[in-house]
Amino acid sequence: MSNRNMETVRVAYAVSTRELEDEPLSATDSTLNASHRGNLPHVYGLMLKHNKQVEAGGLDLPRVELAVIIYDDKEPPLRDFSDVPVEFVGVCSERLRELRDERNAAQAAGNEGEFARLRAEHGAERVRYEQEFLDVLRGAEVDLVMLDRLMVIMGKTYLNEYLGATINSHPAILPDLPGDTPTADALERAQSGGNPWTGVTAHFIDRGIDTGPAISQEECTFIGEGLTVEEVRRRNYLGEGKNFWAAVQNYLSDPDAMRLLNLRRDARRQNGSGKETRKLARRKAKELLGKYRESFDSHWQRRREHGLGSGNYSYRAPFGRIHRPQKVAQRVQPQRLRRAVAR
Is 170 a catalytic residue? Predict the structure, then answer.
């Protein structure tokens, strides 16, 4: 790794169990359920390919090790994931989501006392959830986190340690289609005569809902007449894993991102005495997101008018460079070749 400071980057993959369970959007759609298991196997395969290229000298980036898979449920996945031989650890956000829904209902009903109580309880549960999540990451010595639609908005407790080192995969083009129903929203837009294309985005997380700056995105799925939500989602999956991994490689090629990961590693080694290092890492993380946001915003303003809705739109953050050293072909001397033929 001539231009990298770390030989191996340890990654956590966090996803909801329903995503691991083939995302059964329709219980009767056996074709969808039998043919797809979400992005995890696809991304893991790309990770193994990445490491082979690195070890063979064909890719000048750090190796990537999948350290742990975090599933968001009370029970572990039911399907066989033996082809992804990594430990599964559960960190359930069910109570957090229940409190959020109850809090929103109390607010809508104008019940201020109940809303205040539920808001405080929701805040305490959020801290507990994020602390448990962080305990898993610390135990596995994770550098970078990949979120595959975890459906949880991380707060200050988590972001103090992993801001700028958490990438989320979103099955739509951001900032156009945020939220938890982007496929249905894209289908409704197409059916009403709007942009018939949707796609995928991999972006940093911040404290908003799908508001972090994009690292990589691609408009890859055309919504033809008569398609269902399940069909659009399934087609969009084909581009999502590839785009997700492209974002990780883009991140690994960015010297500022690598410096941030090194700072976080130093803070973990220093344990309780690394206060100043952690403070510096938080500042560098904000600067990193600011850099990506500025780049994407300037790009988005240009492409919004000229590129969207054509199927030709894509974006890759222009930081760092993925080096693929070319192998020098060995030339056979003509004299030796003639001798070989003569024999």
Answer: yes
